Amino acid sequence: MIEELHPAFQTEFEQVLARNPGEREFHQAVFEVMLSLTPIAGTHPEYASWSILQRVCEPERQIIFRVPWVDDQGTVHINRGFRVEFNSAIGPYKGGLRFHPSVNLSIVKFLGFEQIFKNALTGLPIGGGKGGSDFDPKGRSDLEIMRFCQSFMTELYRHIGEYTDVPAGDIGVGGRELGYLFGQYKRITNRYESAVLTGKGLPWGGSQVRTEATGYGTVFFADEMLKANGRSLEGKRAVVSGSGNVAIYAVEKIHQLGGKVIACSDSGGYIVDEAGLDLDLLKEIKEVRRGRLTEYAEARGGAVRHITDGSIWDVPCEVALPCATQNELPEAGAKALIANGVELVAEGANMPTTPDAAKLLVQAGVLYAPGKASNAGGVATSALEMQQNASRDSWSFEKTEARLQHIMETIHHDCMETADKYGDPGNYVMGANLGGYLRVADAMVAMGVI
Ligand code: NDP
Fold first, then answer.
1. Is 436 touching ligand 1 by the criterion CB < 6 Å?
2. How far from each other are the two terminal CA atoms of the chain, in whole angstroms?
3. Is the CB of 169 under 6 A from ligand 1?
4. Tens-place pLDDT, residues 242-268
5. Whole-structure pTM value
């Protein structure tokens, strides 16, 4: 693997492996960025002499803490909390919190690392960070979730702040959890510091469109990719993995733009609804009841299949949006998609496509967008929420959605331009990684060795 990197970066990558043993996801994320830096190897001597790459790969701060909490039966549980404050060259650390049993330091670091470049691509002044816990919210009562969030914030509050570090949601952390987290922050600090968290509810400082932003933004980006190639979403069959926040609003926007989503998934399997997903039913099950996709199949009767073996990527489609989790689209999934004539894959999740799968897609001429670019609408709208909080303002849905769409169009344009400029037209991975990296690196050079 290391031989694929330009010789100028091989030693740097070896150092990352040695300094972060066993952190497989983090290695994968760093490797992908380093691979995209090939066109600037040997240029920009200031980046080399200021050790920019080495510093970018080392988080500015990593916080790991104990989160004790009591369940409804009076049993004490101990979870682990994380916040990795990765890079603040262009603004306060910004990135979500994930509550999922798989969370560990490697996952938080890969997410934080990706976040640096994604946030830079938005053109807004936000640095990169990420956090979370190995707490599993599934099956927990509201009161248990509240007690966990309060305990988590009782440590986290000392590390965050509107000018320091601004968390948001991610897997397992939605409006309910952010409410409990914000409430505890407000109580401990005795400050109504709205911009300390984003993804808040509308009555207490949230922004219109934040809930929809990542899913909508991914589809706006996909639409731009199709348009740039003389095509459109109209009439396209789409498959969207996951059925959480990102997936649901990706489905909504595809339907609004004339496409038809026929399949989605959760960790228990996937459903195929050839008539097009019934979004109201999906929202009722996932957002209100917090239920499973089996309930969707039951409600739609024999018209819908719930499948527990095989893969959602076996479902023939022209547009595929992986919107669940990392490494969920492996080589076999890419082969199935290509064999069935997929035209476009745009990532709503973070790093959902394995490197081998991504390579296959690109070789087969499939339009392929990395999450750093295509799912940046969520964090961009978080930055718009911070803007509204800072100016004690709140914008209409239409104004905020127009800003989101414009930001996604700009990111698309910038990725294309960077890929063109550095000799690989149409390579969105290179365009996103290199474009984001150059912005951060220039700011780091300007600020000296800190
Ligand atoms: P949610 O918790 O709302 O939904 C996650 C969905 O993915 C659920 O349907 C879940 O199923 C499924 N899922 C999670 N883990 C697995 C797994 N190991 N195997 C199969 N399915 C799984 O999270 P979000 O929608 O917010 O996030 C989804 C992805 O998008 C993540 O990669 C996240 O980092 C990324 N993202 C999110 C942003 C946001 O604004 N929310 C912003 C940018 C990126 P189940 O319920 O069964 O676990």
1. no
2. 31
3. yes
4. 999 999 999 999 999 999 999 999 999
5. 0.97
Q: Read off the tokens for 126.
A: 């936000």
Q: Which residue puts its alpha carbon closest to atom 29 of ligand 1?
A: 349
Q: How confident is the model over 124-178, as pLDDT tens digits?
A: 999 999 999 999 999 999 999 999 999 999 999 999 999 999 999 999 999 999 9
Residue nearest to ligand 1 atom 5, measured at CA: 244
Residue carrying the six token digits 């031989």: 3
b/e code 400-431 from CB counts within 10 Å (16+ = b) = bbebbbebbeebbebbbebbeebebebbbbbb
Cβ(348) to ligand 1 under 6 A?
A: yes
Measured distance CA(64)–CA(62) in Å, rounded? 7
Is ligand 1 within 6 A of the CB of residue 382?
Answer: no
Q: Are 148 and 177 in contact (CB under 8 A)?
A: no
Return the pLDDT at 1.
81
Angle (deg, nearest 10), helices 24-36 and 355-363: 30
Q: Which residues contact 231 (CB under 8 A, 6 or more apart)?
A: 343
The answer to whether residue 109 is catalytic is no
Q: What is the pLDDT of residues 277-301, one digit of tens each?
A: 999 999 999 999 999 999 999 999 8
Nearest CA to ligand 1 atom 19: 267
Quick check: 432 pLDDT over 90?
Answer: yes
Ligand 1: distance of its center to the CA of 266 in Å? 9
Q: Which atom of ligand 1 is nearest to the CA of 325?
A: 32
Residue nearest ligand 1's atom 33 by CA: 349
